[in-house]
Design brief:
- By secondary structure, this protein is an all-alpha fold.
- The protein has one domain.
- It is built from five helices and no strands.
- It has helices at about 5-15, 25-50, 50-55, 60-70, 70-75.
- The chain is elongated, with a radius of gyration of 14 Å.
């Protein structure tokens, strides 16, 4: 796992943790915005690159979760 992917997992963990810290803090609100941004952005990536994900070895099922977590950093590993 690359340092970038590890960093993205930390961002995901922090944004998920924001749902468990106080609701009245700016940090919690920011974390939730980051979480929802990541969810929407990565779902759009899955939709846009669905053809490439299906064509890759293992098919869509093998690549949907890594794309959801890492986005373009996973898609770049699939090649042309």
């Amino acid at each position: 796992m690359t340092a970038i992917k590890a960093g993205l997992l930390v961002v995901w963990a922090g944004s998920i943790a924001s749902f468990f810290i106080g609701t009245d803090t700016a940090m919690a609100a920011s974390g939730r915005m980051v979480f929802w941004f990541l969810v929407v952005a990565h779902l759009v990536e899955i939709a846009v690159f669905s053809g490439k994900l299906k064509a890759a070895p293992g098919g869509m099922a093998a690549h949907a979760l890594p794309t959801f977590l890492f986005g373009m950093f996973h898609i770049r590993t699939l090649g042309e």
